[in-house]
Queue: 2 jobs
Job 1
Amino acid sequence: MKYAYYPGCSAESSASAYDATSQMVAAALGLELEEIKDWNCCGATEYFSIDSLPAYALVARNLALAGRQGTSEVIAPCSACYVNLKKVDERMGDYPQLNSDVNEALAAGNLSYTPGSVRARHLLDVICNEVGCDAVSEKVVRPLAGLTLVPYYGCYIGRPEGGFDDVENPQTLDRLLKGLGATVPDYSLKSSCCGGHMTQIGTEVALGILRGLIDLAAKLGADAMVVACPMCQLNLDVYQNQLNSHFGTTYRMPIVYFTQMMALALGMEAAELKFEEGLVPAGPMLEKWQAAEASPQPRKKKSKKALPMPEPLDGGDSG
Amino acid sequence: MKIGVYTCHCGGNIAGTVDCEAVTEWAGRLDGVEVSREYKFMCSSLGQELIEEDIKEYGLDRVVVASCSPHMHEPTFRNACQRAGLNPYFLEMANIREHASWVHKDRSEATEKAMALTAASVARVRYNEPLFARLSPVNQNTLVVGGGVAGIQAALEIANAGYHVYLVEREPSIGGHMAQLDKTFPTLDCSACILTPRMFEVGNHENITMLTYSEVEEVSGYIGNFEARIRVRARCINQELCTGCGVCEEKCPAKVVDTIFEAGLGRRKAVYRPFPQAVPKFPVIDQDNCIWFQKGKCRACEKFCPTDAIDFEQDDRILEIEVGNIIVATGYDAFDARRISQYGYARYPNVFTALEFERMTNAAGPTEGNVVLRDGETQPDSIAIIHCVGSRDVRYREHCSRVCCMYSLKFAHMVHEKLPNATVYNFYIDIRTPGKDYEEFYHRLLEEGTVFIRGRAASITDATLTPEEEGKLIVTAEDTLVGRQRRIPVDMAILSTGLEPRHDSHEVARIFSISCSREGFFKERHPKLDPIATMTDGVFIAGCAQGPRDIPDTVVQGAAAAARVLSIIGKGEVEIEAAKAEVNDLTCVGCQMCIESCPYSAIEHLEERQKARVIEALCKGCGTCVAACLSKSITLYHFTDQQLVAQMRGAMDALFELVPA
Amino acid sequence: MPEDSYEPKIIGFLCNWCSYAGADGAGMARRKQPPNVKIIRVPCSGRVSPELVLRTFMQGADGVMVLGCHIGDCHYGNGNHRTAKRFPVYHRLMDYMGIEKERLWVQWVSASEGQLFAEAVTQFTERLRQMPPMRGKLTTVPSPD
């Protein structure tokens, strides 16, 4: 299937590794991505609080362009872009006045958009639910065995309710990483907020949030935290040094995109996957992986007295 | 024709919104109306006497009562007519309470509607015909479905009165949820100690046929004369030979987690009795987990059984029984705590459900009564009990489950008793203690030192922030009494899961022709005055299948259902609804459309005459055939075309008079 | 009431076991609703013949409601299956008589759905208020006999 591809602004700056590896992985999985010509910024979160009509029109323009290219689904790798595209599409469908106002604005650029005609998808959703984690797993040539990877979804996947995964305990990235051969602990902060732009508003608060996230990952023995959003990556990576000096901690947690880890498992060369763009070096993680490829690890035994654990539910349904 | 119309004020219930005087006056001018009166309470004995006297004095031949729903008082006023010598089917009611005064605010609107409804009934009653209810003998046997404490109580009451009971239970033993519990609130008496004597009584009662590991598959018939088909699943145990010695269980090599009786906290064998005091004493072979059934080898139980009681060849048995009444007491399911991801059940080992904790504190349970973490060894120093898990939450179950506050208090007490140095936190929204000695029990717990935090727990997490939290589960909540966010580190969390309808309650309701509320609890005939009966005569409900309740209330309902059944048996015969269909032989063309439409196969085709005929004993009076008949040859008594059209015209004519187009 | 608006006259045929009990439930819970629907109790929605519906329109009703148990919950097993199957017949006859099909409202309402009943009454009444009254459209009015 052919998808429109909406890279989003960060793909051209801080998240160029995400953009590059997304395209590499998509090609390897046979997903045909066609970049939306002349796309523009999605307005992130702020614009909606400043002036809503232009904010909606800004996003709708991208949907209109995708529709004009003849695609009915648009893939966004960035969680914020994804939520904005989805939100604008839904709201235009729910509120006729907004729909006509936005279309009036689009008409100035000879564009129009019918709500519901282009479906916004997160790249993680398409890979896990269209291609399928099992199909991805079958394509793995160099399993990520020996690596403990913590899946960090951030707050947007699953929110607002009705997304493609559970709000409180999403599973897609867990399944994907397990399929790649990694050890994936149950990371309870997986859908907590990374602080977003709180770093610009209240540094103390933001650093506290980030510290909690990295601290739990470190306790779980993570070799890296795997993310699906440029904002999450930026906050966890860029502010890690600052929080270390602020709290007197010594975290060196690489923050990598899931597409980078997929590319690795699919057999692509680490050197081409832009790991060096992260401020916290991913080198030690990669070295550990290469070493572990040679020697598999022993399993822990459970105590005889232990009481049975309840079976997990296949995906939660918390409201 | 002399019609009497009686408009009821129902105190202020009707008169508060409907101008009853105007309705009475209006009705008095309707065609054929001889007397039109109003009265404060028509259902009172004085009100009924009013009708009876008028029937005699004025020679009334039709009666219309404009009052509440016929579901409430149709039998009352039919009886009044009968007492005065008038056929009860000459009564018609106009529902001006539920359908008018209670649902409208505007007095003139409500009054106009009441007038139209009354006029419709007056127009209809002219065409009512005398009908005679058929009397049918009552089969004295009773079917009780569900062997929990409600079913046990009901079965014993009826059996002790000298009548036979079939008690059907899905699990291998009777006892239900009560058998799983350790102590009962607020008296703290041992649940098993008070229940097992009743279980044995059931097991040994000469008037009770106990069918465990069995399910009702189909029910047909009507009050006094039901037929039920019961599947008795193969136990693979010859009950004639089995002594219940338990050797098979001991020798069986297949061990599985027991998600029913042990609530997932313990294991059982593939051949098992759920618990030592199980009734009957015979084990069952769980074929899904038996090595012989799955892999074709083993048969260890057979080798060691001293009485050769193992029978792998046994098949399910189908039992057809005839009963006069049915009591459905199928109980509840515990809310599945995994559905609320943020509480971490099935994620964090040391989060337990209420039923798991019941089994844990039970001396006969998997930990022999020791309160320990999931590792089976470590005693917790701090325990959080989270109330209202799945209850009082619009995302899951809106209802209050009624027992969780009390059993949470009981848990707190059990911990204080077993681990005197442990701290117990109760996170609650409100403490609800409506029952005898319940509030006193709450006060006792306050004195015992339980910490009560008023606020629904937001989450349970292993993400720690401080060294004190390290290695603990953190319960986060807004303490609404202090007005701040709290993070309480604990070793163990117990989720006080709510009570919800059985997952298959809708299917079960269909089997017994009763209905469910939207969420799945069985619907009673009247929420206040008839919580035991259902809309299907002869089918009664008891216990948590009708709604969440505690043990005393469940026992009361079981006994009440039994009393209702006994009164029907005692009477010996029941009146069968007279509203049946009949085919007009002269006009029937034998097209058989009616036969196809009848849900009960109650119409037969007389081949030689090419006519349809209603089999009276099978007809339930739904009238589907009437609507299907192309030659208008079928009459459904009491709902004839004439009657319904007259009623409709009566309403329409009144409307055009009251509110001209 | 403004000159150009009118109050629709509606007859509701409700099955005894589910929908009539649902309407009673609406009463017990004091669910307010417009007074336009006049309820006639029938044993089963399957009893409501197409002729009965047509006769009601011919009598000047602006709308007719037929409410029964949910499919699968019928007191008579599957009487309401007939109602569901008859739906196109109602519509065809109405079409033949020149009655808009929007004037018929068929819905399943259980005994516990008082609120749903009140909502249905409100919505149907509102819908009919937007349509012209029926009186005068049909001239022949047969007697009930």
Job 2
Amino acid sequence: MTAATGRPDTGERPDPLRRPEAEQSASRDRRDAASPVRARGGWRALVLQPVLVALGLLAYVVWRSTTTLSDTEARQLGAATLWDSVLRHLQLTVVAAVIVLLIAIPLGIALTRPALRRFTPLVIGLANVGQAAPAIGLFVLLADWLGFGFGTTIVALVVYSALPVLRNTMVGLQGVDARLVEAGRGMGMSGAAVLFRVELPLAVPVMLSGVRTALVLLVGTATLATFIAGGGLGVLINTGITLSLNSLLVSGAVLVALLALAIDWLGRVVEHVARPKGL
Amino acid sequence: MSDTLSSADAHSTDPAPQSSEGRRVSGVSIRLDGVTKRYPGQDRPAVDAVSLEIPAGETVMFVGPSGCGKTTLLKMLNRLIEPSSGTIHLGDEDVTKQDPDQLRRRIGYVIQAGGLFPHMTVGTNVGMVPRMLGWDKERVTARIDELLDLVGLDPEVYRDRYPKELSGGQQQRVGVARALAADPPVLLMDEPFGAVDPITRQRLQDELLRIQEELGKTIVFVTHDFDEAVKLGDRIVVFDVGARVVQYDTPEAILAEPAEEYVADFIGAGATLKQLTLTRVNSLELKPVTSASVGDDAAEALARARAAGDEYIVVLDRRGRPISWPTTAEVSRMQQIPATVDEKLPVVGLGSTLNDALDTMLAASQGGAVVIGRRDSLAGVVSIETIMDAIQRTRSEVAG
Amino acid sequence: MWDYVLDRRGQIAFQAFQHVSLVVQCVLLGSLIALALAVLVYRSPRLTGLANGVSAIGLTIPAFALLGILLAPFGFGITPAVIAVTFYAALPVLRNAVVGLAGVDRSLIESARGMGMSRLSTLARIEIPLAWPVILAGVRVSTQMVMGIAAIAAYVLGPGLGGFIFTGLSRLGGANALNSALTGTIAIVVLALVLDLLLLLLGRLTTPRGIRV
């Protein structure tokens, strides 16, 4: 019913891709490097990125096995401890990401339905203001309210990274040509059928790029978990800084960067594979 | 001379009811009673109490300036827009109270550029409604092929393509095929040919005339192009603001006697010339022509052409569609009839207007054109002289 | 909360100034670097790909990690903060500038060259003005992002409002911890929005009227 709402029969249909708020919000995404356009031409980039990660990892392993470390450093950088930190970091990222998807995608879908569409500017406006908040401030404030630990960290991560998924879900759905929705309804598909068979498949590229953005944001932001006892690779960096142990600091930083790159790459691969044929 | 209009109809084995003119009719009538649409916050209704009767199996064109409510009225027929008041009957059924999704599956709907789903193949697009209606797989597959064939696209070639791999005209054909998939009695078309170039538009129009000849659906077609309305419509409804019906009549009657100044203005200058668009190629005497199929023996075809006194041989592909027309001189140098497709071959349909036919010949710089009938099969050839004669005749009739 | 703010208004104003000053200078520097790089690469598809790759990969590196790495050679203080903030400020501008410049209609450039404009003046008078809205959008993204990153930079003793947040963290549970963290966070949000508004205004004023949307 989309095209039918506004005014009668002018023969002109506004191009949904040019809605000012969609444009505006898309450009405000901090890490939306993302536009599906890039993912398309980029087989070479898709190959290059894991090679870079592998080389980085190799360099780190070589450095680690050739440097002599003090006792403290060796304890912190033992294979088992290191692996635990990486796993913990991943755990934070994945748990938060799953919650984000469960909240943001249905919300995004709901906000693009005709009945709720009028709340869209409000939500997007709020989300943009929220996005301007520094992550570290959010962590500290939530810790003051909910205490330290894993749970609080997850809450902070979810709050901080829900926006890209929410926004890209909405932008993706709004970007679907209103005429296709009308064609679907016109041939007797129910509203739900149009959503699942036409709108969502067509919005998938944009939505996935939002998910990838959120994942990368999560890996990065999870380094701040160390400040509120959430664990992860941030602990290494933080310990390195407080104890002036460069080996710890660099280990943490390098591993987090590699992890972020690896996850970004995985996201790109998924985007490439899941892009509906025919687009 | 090859086969002309075949009487075989692949669509239905039921004996079809015949209209008074003897045409096959599979459509139902549509009756609108006081159909009104008001939008909140607008003092004048977009559609104001329209009552209209559309006979079964006819093509009725809605024309009028943009914003006059014709599209709104069309969309109320399949309830994409809900009427504020009034009733709509399809046949004897009041559809205003029916479940809209069920209703729409029985009404074909074609919009500009076809509205094809870009992430689905041509076949999936066409098979959409039959699948929703719960047809089994084989029946859907068979139906897809049948429909692609109907709109002149080779199923083998196009079934598994994606819409973006088709030209604008081909997409539009698929759009028509999709709308016809469940054999709906009614077809709604919302400025379907608005986005294609003039030559393609003319071909699509011819195609629609041909399909309608074959199927006899009830078609409601919105356009702002009066020439298109004259060419395609059995009847034309001219609307003014608020979807006020200014005149509802056959194209001939509207051209001859515009009901109001408004209609005369809308038809615009050159109304007499527009009469030309009323005369169709099928009213002309077509010349039979020698035809040969790809791979036939060239010498044998040549002998037949010479016996018939033809200067050309029309080459048909394996589906019986004309693909080129080499001269006898050219054929005499061949061993076999080649499969080369002449992209510039001037082709017109039986439903084409004289204007169209003339345009086609001029565009191809040829003194004649191949005429095709049902399923793109060869119907004969027409020469530029025949057309000029007919135009002269029409003009003198109009003038007299 | 209000008393807290009133008591420390001098300090808050000073830190806010420091924060904005760090961000504005770094964004300016980063944008200039990014624009220069974009001008160098946008003509070659290969280098463009490389630049896009660098900006995409650069943006995946967590800010806290980069700050950590920079501590090793530079030690605590303003240097690692400036380098990190400038780095992140440059990346979105680089990406947008490349996209914007590459998006300028070739025929316009040809007609400019055809009427005898030099390469440089074509760039300065045709290409950059046409790409300007896109470039400026990149600057806005940068500014928003580095406002937050500058807060983390306070941890390596960079200047700015992040100090309030970390003070709050270190005294969590104690008096004024919440006030301190809230002050820092809210001040950053407000300043980020003000800067964004100013950039929007700048955009209105500097975008040629013919290409405004």
